[in-house]
Every structure is written in structure tokens, then in C-alpha cells.
Amino acid sequence: MAPTATMEIHQDGVAVIxxxxxxxxxxxPMVLSALLDSLKTAQADSRVKxxxxxxxxxxxxxxxxPTFVRIQSGAETLxxxxxxxxxxxxxxxxxxxAAIEGAALGGGCELAMxxxxxxxxxxxxxxxxxxxxxxxxxxxxxxxxxxxxxLQKAMQMxxxxxxxxxxxxxxxxxxxxxxxPSDLLATAKAxxxxxxxxxxxxxxxxxxxxWFVPWVMxxxxxxxxxxxxxxxxxxxxxxxxxxxxxxxxxxGVVNGPVAGLAKEQEVFKYCMQQExxxxxxxxxxxxxxxxxxxxxxxxxxxxxxxxxxxxxGGGLMGSGICTALALSGSNVLLKExxxxxxxxxxxxxxANLMSSVKKRKMSEKQAMAVFGRVKGTLEYADxxxxxxxxxxxxxxxxxxxxxxKDLEDSCPPHCVLSTNTSTIDINVVYDVVxxxxxxxxxxxxxxxxxxxxxxxxFFPYTMSAMMLLDMGQxxxxxxxxxxxxxxxxxxxxxxxxxxxxxxxxxxxxxIHWADYKGAQYIVKRLNDFAKMVPGHxxxxxxxxxxxxxxxxxxxxxxxxxxxxx
Length: 565
Known about the structure:
Blueprint: E1 4-9, E2 14-20, H1 29-44, E3 50-55, H2 65-73, H3 82-91, E4 96-100, E5 103-105, H4 107-114, E6 117-120, E7 125-127, H5 141-149, H6 151-160, E8 164-165, H7 166-171, E9 177-178, H8 184-196, H9 220-234, H10 241-255, H11 257-272, H12 275-289, E10 308-312, H13 316-327, E11 331-335, H14 339-358, H15 364-371, E12 374-377, E13 388-391, H16 397-410, E14 416-419, H17 433-438, H18 454-470, H19 481-484, H20 490-501, H21 510-517, H22 519-532, H23 537-540, H24 544-552
Parallel strand pairs: 2-3, 3-4, 4-6, 5-7, 6-9, 10-11, 10-13, 11-12, 13-14
Antiparallel strand pairs: 1-2, 7-8
Helix pairs in contact: 1-3, 2-12, 4-5, 5-6, 9-10, 10-11, 12-20, 13-14, 14-15, 22-24
């Protein structure tokens, strides 16, 4: 179904406009256009007394990210419907109420703030995470959020990009009431009719004059030092867009909301075309794409339900895997070779959970309930009910071969046997994509080779860094993983290098950065390095694929012509 927004006029005189672009109701241009048309119709219809805007399961998770990519590339233009949309929501003849279930993030949150009131369910989340994409809020968020929750809380929400839950949203005045999902629409409609009849005030966020008092206690001039302090903190990120976001907020403080909105639009359009935004948007989309693997996820296969997962080895890696599994709700079986090692592994798992307690991410009671899902064993006989086994022992080929022989004799036929090896060549790649999602990890499926993807890049990356560091040079080295087809697509390697190697996300990952610089640049730098160390010139020699890309002006991100997956 095409992205859209639909409208129904109920007998009580409330027009209900529903955003429809499942599953997250992202604000595709077609949604925004349909929403604007529906608002125009509802505001002009004499039968309509008030308007409710909502979305099924999710209000809206924000602007449609693939559309950003098309706009950044010049393939599509950005129609500026926001001023007209917000004018009809905020100040049209009929009052509006947002009925929020699930996510109201980014543009979705800004859409809700344009309404005259907001009613939500207990599972609602609201926030402005645009800075994580190299952008700033672009639908009025830099001006309306401070006026609704206070400047201090708004700055915190925008600069950290962290959403808040329903109770906190109500505490700070972002929503008016929290109701069960079954009562959401009826409550929102009743609230809207009360506003239309004058029984409740019609709140226009941009006209609120008391927004400094509750949380800042001062006049606009007195809060400028706080804004300057925020800019000093933001400078530590080394990125420009957080500073420009504060500039937009400051403009609204000093010169009023109209000037603030104009500044916001200016900054938003500028940030959208910067390399940081292009890189962070690329990382966002590539991360979602790692679980889509050619020849596997496109075959209509359904993942096996994994109730019990066994882990061999309770060291740092094994205990971390056990912790993630237990937190995801799985029953976990940890096997070790002796009681001392087993006790140590269980203690590490408990320590991991207690760390979350100290950080106030869960209560001690909750942590102990999670720990209760973990059972220790010294015997393979306990593996008879396992749905998956993850081997996480030391990198010893003979030991791993013996373990898998024992597992074949002890596990049921449906059990998936997998390895956590990071360097040793294996003969079978098992599909554990669904498990990775279950334990809230990002899967990157790789082909079979020594070192796989990350270590295959990391080892020469580190070696070249050390060598060049000794020579007083800056290390840049691109490995040959894409050329060898070890990953399904270049974006997978970008995510692997960002999440496993600490490659800066704002550069988009190793291959994205290399394409930004250009294959010719990479080849020239490698050849320059080779001349610096004649005795190790072969180490820096560009591979045939990289050289071919440079000769023909082909981006590395085009990917290999064949894959080893």
C-alpha cells in the first residue's frame, strides 16, 4: 500500500486523520502531502468541530530516511510543506489533538507538538534524535519543544537524542494525559471537542510565554550563558551540526519563534548536504540492511524458535553472550570444563547484570530474575533440549574440532551449532541472524575465510598504523575484503568497522569513507606509503580490484561482481 494519510469524519464532528505508512509510519513525502490535503479539507468542512491526528501502532517514527538519501543525491527535491502543515495544525480554525501510540520521534514528535494537545498510551516514546543523523530538527522542533517542556529539558533531549517515555513526557508537559490503548481515540476526541467548546484551553506552543520560568528561572538574556555553555560542551564532539542546532534554538530565544523557525530551516537544509549527514544516514540504513542477506533472507525462510541456547566457555566473550541471551528472555545453558571455570563464568554474568543495576537500567530484583534463566553445567548430557549451541572457547583448532564432534553426538537433530571464532577458517556458515536481533545485536553475515570480515581488516589496519606511526605518519589502509566477496555488500563492512573497530560513524564506515575520498586518492596514498618503506612495499600494494576502481573511476561501494557467501 502506498504511503498516505486517511481521514474519517465521525458523527460527533471529529475528523480523525490517520497516518498510514507501516510499520513505523515514517513521514514519506506522499504521507505529508496527504496529511496536508486532509487538514485543509477538515479545517474547511462545516461538519468538523475538531481534529485528531493519529497512527496505527506507531504515531510516526519521523521523516522517511530513504527519501533523505534521494534528496542528498539530487534525485528528489524537498517540498517545504512544513509551514503550511504546522499552521493548519497549530492555528487553523479547528483545534487539533495528537493521539500517540508507540513511537513519536523526529518529525513525528514535531508533528505532534504542532497540535494543540497530546494524549498518549503508556508505551509511547517521544524525542528528537535528528542529531544522530547529522541533522537538526527541521519541522519546528527547535522552537516548540523548549516552549512545551522548558529550555533546559529541551536542550537535554535534543543534544543527547534520547527519547523519553510517557510518564516523563507527562511530567514535563509534553503530553496532557496517559490512557490505555483502548481508550486513546475516545479520550483524544473528547479532549479535542472540549477545546473546541472552550472547556479546555487551546495551547499553541509557539505562543507560550512562560517557558523560561518552570525550568530555567530567568529572562531570555539570563539564559544565554547556559546556551553558550552548551555550545562549549557540543564542541567536544568535533562536529558542526550540534553547534548549529544550538544556534537555531538561541535565535528563537533572542528574536522570537518566527526568526527561530527561519534559522532552523536554514540550518537544516545546510546540514542535509554535508558529508557528516550523508555518512550517518548511510550508517543508519546500512545497519538495518545487515540482516538482509542475498540467498538467505530473501528465500522466504522462517527462523527456528530458540527457547534454549547453550554457550561453551564462560570467559569474557562467552559470559557476555550468556548475558545478552538471558536479557533477551532465552533460557541459557553455560558449559565449562571444570567447576572453578564454571563458577567464574557465572560470576561474570552476575557482575554484568549488577553493572546494569548500578547504572539504574534495572532493579536488583529484575537482575536476579534474568540471572535465574542461566544454568551451569559440566556435562554434554544436558544439551538434549538445546535449540542452538554457541562455541566460545579459546582459538585452538583441535579443541574446537573435538567440541563439535561431541556436540554432534549430544544435541538434538534440529539444534543449530555455531561458533564465535574470530580468526579460524570454518566450513559452514550458520544462519543466526534472527538470534542476533533477539539479543539486540547487529548481525553481519560473512563468507568463510581466515579472519572473516573484521579481523581481516583490523589486523592489517593495525599493522599499518603501527608501522606508519613509527615513521610519524597518519595511517590509512583499506583491506581487500570487499574485493574478495567476504561480505554480502559494502554497507555490511561499513557497519562492521563502525561497531567493532571504532571507525567514526560520522565518516560512514571504511568503504563509505574511501568512496568519499575516491579510489584514486586511496591508491595514491598506498603507493606513497609503499615508497616510504621499500622493504615492506608489498604490504601497501593496492589490490587489483582497488587499482581497477581507481583506473576506471568506479566507487568501491559498487561491490564485487561475485560473492563467497
